[in-house]
Amino acid sequence: WNPSAWIALVISLLPVLPGFLSETGVLPSDLVPDFLRQLYTYAWFITFFLAFVIYWLLNSKIIRRPVISLLAALLLAFVPVQSTRASRFIPPIAVLCPESTVTVLADLVNQRLSYMKDVAAYKWQHQLSIENQAREQVVIQSSVEQASVYGLDTASARSFFEAQIIAAKEIQQYWFDQWTTQGVDEQLTFRDLDTEIRPALLDMGDQILLTISELRLWERSPSYIVRNRRRFINALTTEGLGPREKYSLYEAATQMEGR
Prior knowledge:
By secondary structure, this protein is mostly helical. It is built from 13 helices and no strands. The longest helix is centred in the middle third of the chain and has 29 residues.
């Protein structure tokens, strides 16, 4: 029995522990930062592999100095973090552990919807209406065209982005109601709508379409879709998003098809 080997093994596995606890329901999703959940989603395989390599090296006496081995464990535990940042949208877990694919998609939808508080603040400050049908049609048409580029059915893509727009407007209305009843801080800050928010939303939309095209949810069994509905809904943690819209987003996402 080699205590150093076991300690190094535990240290090496620490980066993916919060994400694992979130995935298994031990910790609520909103208590675990998106980055840590994404780390588990994208880099769990390389983390486990490196951890057991370290354990084997220590247990077989190839590495004999505990201090050096523990430093090596910390260094190698850092590798998945960097690999996650470098290749966020090529998740090996989508192949090796299909149950987590819906969490990958939910994380991306969360990131896109997180901009809605800024959108609401911009409209509030400039006394604009939440509803903007002309802009909505531009966004939907652009998304449908991009879906075609990724080999996705345009009709189902339209339904999915319409569901996102409904969710986005619900979040904006939530913040409007908050500011109406509770007042607004004098220094209400928000990112610029034209130079920051809209380009980011278009980029996130592309990433969502790319992920859907890679995950190929339309090929999953009906039991998979039913089994993972709660996982997806629980992973959507954007403030102001209600359960009905979360359900609609999942249904629209899983009904998307390839061409």
